[in-house]
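Revision sheet: structure tokens.
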Amino acid sequence: MKSFMGHLIVAAVFLASVSSIVNANDPGSVQDFCVAARNPNSAVFVNGQFCKDPKLAVAEDFFLAAFNKPGVITSPQGSIVKPANVAQIPGLNTLGISMVRIDYAPYGGMNPPHTHPRATEILVVLEGTLDVGFVTSNPENKLIAKTLQKGDVFVFPIGLIHAQVNVGKTPAVAIAALSSQNPGVITIANAVFGSKPFIPTDILAKAFQVDNNIIDHLQAQFPKQA
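Predicted:
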């Protein structure tokens, strides 16, 4: 009986370990939505990607070049994000992981407030000094923030608004890993003030408790949509 119980405990631990490994991959949707197709012949999108015959796989399916080179920063926020997800590395399909390289301009280069609806992010600073943080959900809305130096690591939980800012006088670089092959990104300012079409001014004015003119000014920073 004792031996049986011992084997049972070992089996339970093994199954728990396997379960944790399985759950490390994408647990659900890896796109914003997946509308069921009434006619299968018209179905062109799937929850993920169609799979290539494994016999036809080549090294290039699992490779991305030039991740070591800085991007050219042209955004007004002063940062550029280079992704390494399933769109760039087809071999990531179904593996539940991806990466990004982020370059920040000196003196305030920012990866602006955003969320990843399908992934937790873990970031390591390669060069420079970053102020980073995320905000917890309602009703606390607590800001959890930290100043990071070269080699420091920080975690942004799935779905929470977070940002990074270069507070140094030299360029900064970070690498982040995400727990989805297609984590998605929602940049808060773009989503709220640059939606297509725009969210009505009176709705945003009431939500932010400001004058309509302020909303008009913010929406004017984005191309007008029909």
